[in-house]
UniProtKB/TrEMBL annotation:
PANTHER family: MAGNESIUM-CHELATASE SUBUNIT CHLD, MOXR FAMILY PROTEIN. Gene3D superfamilies: P-loop containing nucleotide triphosphate hydrolases (3.40.50.300). The lineage of its organism: Bacteria, Bacillati, Actinomycetota, Actinomycetes, Kitasatosporales. Residues 1-22 are annotated as: Disordered. It comes from the Bacteria. It comes from Streptomyces edwardsiae. Residues 99-237 form the ATPase dynein-related AAA domain. This is AAA family ATPase.
Length: 381
């Protein structure tokens, strides 16, 4: 369990005996999971580092995009996509503008934000999760009421938000799903980002951001009906749009890599290269998402769900678990069919029709897909 009060997160043992190591944690933070890569980069990085940065911008980009170091250390790619996007994102963090990662769901906004914070500041945990209920205290500061009542307002009774801690320590703060946060709470970020100051009127004090402070926000550009970003706030950000994977090969590559990583941490069987099943899942997702078959011949209706790369990753990971526990350890059509159905059919009426039509007109006719068609028919009822 991570307790996020105090300057550094503390891993608390569940029963008071011993300490929880990163290896025992279900999902270690990026800076823990990739500690070896980050240390190797820091050791071999001889380019200039902005104040309080753990690495140079070049090394941060290498950490995200992958590469190999002079001593042979291999840096695994975290983000698979255009290099320029990563370069612009990293550079922005070294300026006085904050970074807004924008994109449809599942385009790795959260993932990139976590890895950027880990590489730049060595800590990805200074995080505010944006929801419709995010209060101002989550962005500014709150109070420890026991101390406040006992001793009155003081720095001791103040509970800093992750953003306040990042300002004071010159670190990277993260705000997830910025546009879900109510507009008046969003606006508290304007002073923080323009004046680099967080006033504490109760104490007649302020916290001034020190060098190294910046903020990465993520927002979903499909979030309709939620709070738009005010233009005043938008001006404080450089916006970087994360695209969907451009080619099927790129998407298969992303899914295969991530499933491998996830599978290792869940003790699932290894994924051999170029698994047909991953290719088929990605093909189905892309065709339904694009509303047209890969060969460009058949127009399709798109279902209501997003069918993102992230969902393809979950479907394949779930399929691997089925294959491991109830199959012969080899990923087959029958292992992914139920997952695909669940991802495609979100609206039980309309999406089911779309799915049926796709199955009968496209999947059924496709060479070498007979087993896949059968498996999908079986779960579709
Ligand atoms: N281009 C990409 N490169 C690497 N991983 C990706 C890419 N696109 C999606 N993913 C994977 O998808 C998963 C979900 O991404 P996430 O950051 O939660 O999406 P978002 O915040 O945009 O909705 C992550 O496991 C991430 O590794
Ligand atoms: Mg996200």
């Amino acid at each position: 369990m991570t307790v996020s009060v105090g300057p550094t997160p503390v891993h608390q043992p569940p029963n008071g005996s011993g300490t929880v190591t990163p290896a025992q944690v279900l999902r270690p933070h990026a800076e823990e999971a990739f500690a070896a890569e980050l240390a190797a980069l820091a050791a071999q990085d001889d380019r200039p580092r902005p104040t309080r940065w753990r690495l140079s911008p070049w090394a941060v980009a290498t950490y995200l995009l992958g590469g190999s170091l002079p001593d042979g250390t291999v840096i695994t790619p975290k983000y698979i996509g255009p290099r320029r996007i990563v370069e612009v994102a990293v550079t922005t963090l070294a300026t006085d503008r904050a970074l807004l990662l924008l994109g449809v769901p599942g385009t790795a906004k959260t993932w990139v934000s976590e890895h950027l914070a880990a590489a730049v500041s060595g800590d990805s945990t200074l995080l505010v999760q944006g929801t419709a209920g995010t209060p101002e205290e989550a962005v500014r500061y709150g109070w420890n009421y026991a101390r406040l009542l006992a001793h009155g307002p003081s720095r001791d009774a103040l509970v800093p938000s992750p953003v306040m801690r990042a300002m004071a320590d010159g670190m990277t703060a993260r705000v997830e799903e910025l546009t879900r946060i109510p507009a008046d709470v969003q606006d508290t970020l304007i002073t923080i980002l323009s004046e680099k100051t967080l006033p504490i009127p109760e104490l007649g004090q302020e916290v001034q951001a020190v060098h190294g402070f910046n903020l990465i926000a993520t927002a979903n550009d499909r979030d309709r009906g939620v709070n738009e970003l005010s233009s005043a706030l938008r001006r404080r950000f450089n916006t970087v749009v994360l695209p969907l994977p451009q080619t099927p090969e790129a998407e298969v590559d992303i899914v295969t890599r991530r499933v491998r990583q996830l599978g290792r941490s869940l003790d699932l069987p290894a994924v051999p290269d170029g698994v047909d099943e991953i290719r088929r899942v990605v093909t189905v997702f892309r065709e339904l998402r694009d509303g047209i078959t890969t060969d460009g011949r058949t127009k399709l209706k798109s279902p209501s769900g997003t069918l993102s790369t992230a969902e393809a990753i979950s479907v394949v990971t779930g399929g691997l678990a089925l294959a491991a526990h109830f199959g012969d350890g080899v990923l087959r059509a029958g292992d992914v069919a139920a997952g695909i159905l669940g991802a495609v059919v979100r609206d039980p009426a309309a999406d089911r029709v779309v799915w049926r039509e796709y199955l009968e007109t496209v999947v059924r006719e496709r060479d070498g897909w007979a087993d896949f068609y059968r498996a999908c028919r079986e779960v579709s009822g």
